[in-house]
Amino acid sequence: MSYAEEEIEIEVPFFDLDPMNVVWHGNYVKYTEIARCKLLEKIGYSYPEMVRDGYVYPIAKMDMKFIKSATLSQKLLIKASLEEYEPSLKIKYEIKDIQSKDVIFKASTMQICVDAVSRKSLYDAPQGLKEGLKCLSIS
Amino acid sequence: MSYAEEEIEIEVPFFDLDPMNVVWHGNYVKYTEIARCKLLEKIGYSYPEMVRDGYVYPIAKMDMKFIKSATLSQKLLIKASLEEYEPSLKIKYEIKDIQSKDVIFKASTMQICVDAVSRKSLYDAPQGLKEGLKCLSIS
Amino acid sequence: MSYAEEEIEIEVPFFDLDPMNVVWHGNYVKYTEIARCKLLEKIGYSYPEMVRDGYVYPIAKMDMKFIKSATLSQKLLIKASLEEYEPSLKIKYEIKDIQSKDVIFKASTMQICVDAVSRKSLYDAPQGLKEGLKCLSIS
Amino acid sequence: MSYAEEEIEIEVPFFDLDPMNVVWHGNYVKYTEIARCKLLEKIGYSYPEMVRDGYVYPIAKMDMKFIKSATLSQKLLIKASLEEYEPSLKIKYEIKDIQSKDVIFKASTMQICVDAVSRKSLYDAPQGLKEGLKCLSIS
Questions:
Q1: Which of A85, A120, B100, D121 yields a CA-CA distance of 20 to 30 A from D12?
Q2: What does the DSSP assignment read for C90-123?
Q3: CA–CA dist A10, A73 (Å, integer)
Q4: Count of domains observed in chain D
Q5: Quick one: which of C84, C70, C89, C82 has its CA closest to C31?
Q6: For residue B108, what is the domain's CATH number?
């Protein structure tokens, strides 16, 4: 059970491949970010809203498991699920091959809400994030 | 106590920064890779030797902790330490600000040795890697 | 008049932004590559076919004009047009904002077909590329 | 004859390689940026000084010639030369293999000084840049 979920599709571009002809492991961080941004957009509390409210939400921890390799033009489904939003934002990620449904990659991130001016960590989620989640759970 | 260690220095380039004017979190994967490659070079068993011997050494797991942010032209010291080489290669990383010695980032990677032809995992480290480590411990 | 054209859409991701909050100039090279790959797929002669036929097609020249900046989540239309295929592959690119139709960026690339074994440049386009273009002009 | 020159060395990292085992062409943009930043630091007018004075200096044009390929751990010498500073900043780049002195890559960039607030282009170089160049020519 997660508070909110979003799925996006990507097609592996040439410039993400390494000499083994597979996606270089560091590029999965980009794939998780695209899915996370879409999840936060769905909640209605993404980067522009954070900036407007005076918050930053840096990644404090990220764990990645590389299960299978992916190659040129492979179509991937990236799911991001919000697992926790207080005291920190915990998001899980799963990447599957769209055709075979094979799991390619799993990850999780933990983000801490920080006041952009005082640089203090906040343990309550921003009001805008909580309201966005409430709207989403009703709809 | 680690089997082998290596340290490198980098200076944060402009293209690694994000709109918050700090290193984008995904770029730390690159910094760890530079240090890991130098550690493996020191051991005498890096990418060209693996290819020659018919092995690949994909990253299977990577965990990252982002402790402080880093910004333009900041000089960073990146240490990679080999913690384990059988049945898998475990390397720890620590990034410090060169001046203040503040710890910026910590990470660990786990790599599994795979036969490039059979695609089977190997639990014994390649002979070349073990010999390299032996030479290093004597010197 | 071009021999073949293809258009793709992208949405600017966070990790492509620089401290000025706009797409870092080097990332446009990625956008052109995505469009070029789709154009070559449409022709039916992309990276896997080149490898199969024993050719590589390195970029020899690239010129870029940065006209307007692009920012987070902006939707861009990237057009790639094949201008010439013998003795070299010349492709033009234009990036527009999808909504305003403002031109953001223009570029051109020149690629030379090289025999992967002999490393010699070829001045005739590969047969597969010419046949793909013929099919496309008929359809 | 150029107004100022700077040279830097880099060693090609694994993550810059593509499936052909050579540096992916878009990564040369990063190499030029590292050299350009060092050239501007030498002049004493780099990114922090521009921000302080209220200017931005976006790249308006960039032309690249890819002459030879570069591969893992290859040591490259990157030279940036200031060719013009008014009405626009023109910098030339040349990348050589450190050992063989073979030229790998050439490029040029053109940047326009823009007032960060009014967004107007300036045709006179910032005072700080001109003074930096004067100091450099005397020393």
A1: B100
A2: EEEEEEEETTT--EEEEEEEEE-EEETTT--EES
A3: 9
A4: 1
A5: C70
A6: 3.10.129.10
Measured distance CA(D60)–CA(B103) in Å, rounded: 38
Residue D26 contacts C, CB cutoff 8 Å: yes
Measure B105 CA to nearest chain A CA, in Å.
10
- Contacts of C134 by beta carbon, 8 Å cutoff, 6+ apart: none
Cβ proximity of C75 and C11 under 8 Å:
yes
Amino acid at D20: M
Tell me the pLDDT tens digit for each residue of A58-108: 999 999 999 999 999 999 999 999 999 999 999 999 999 999 999 999 999
Residue A83 lies in a domain: yes
Domain that holds residue A28: 4-131
ipTM of the modeled complex? 0.95
State the helix-helix crossing angle for C28-43 and C127-138, rounded to 10 degrees. 80
* Residue A43, φ and ψ in degrees, nearest 5: -70, -20
User: Which residue of A18, A21, A73 to mutate against D (max D Cβ within 10 Å)?
Assistant: A18
Tell me the pTM. 0.96
* Residues from chain C contacting residue B14 (CB–CB below 8 Å): 18-19
Long-range pairs for D123-128: beta carbons < 8 A, 24 or more residues apart: D123/D86, D123/D87, D124/D86, D124/D87, D125/D85, D125/D86, D125/D89, D126/D45, D126/D50, D126/D53, D126/D55, D127/D53, D128/D44, D128/D45, D128/D49, D128/D53
| Residue B76 within any structural domain of the chain | yes
A58 in any annotated domain: yes
Q: What DSSP designation does A27 have?
A: G
DSSP B11-74: E--GGGB-TTSSB-GGGHHHHHHHHHHHHHHHHT--HHHHHHHTEE--EEEEEEEE-S---TT-
Question: Tell me, what's the pLDDT at B137?
Answer: 86
Two tokens, residue D27: 């990564």
Distance separating alpha carbons of residues A92 and A106, to the nearest angstrom: 8
**What digits encode the pLDDT tens for the residues D66-93?**
999 999 999 999 999 999 999 999 999 9
Residue C139 CA, chain-centre distance (Å), reads 22
Chain C nearest CA to B117, separation (Å): 20
Structure tokens at D113: 């000084």
Is B50 within a domain? Answer: yes
With vertex at residue A120, the alpha carbon angle to CA A123 and CA A28, rounded to the nearest 5 degrees, is 75
Nearest CA in chain A to C27: A15
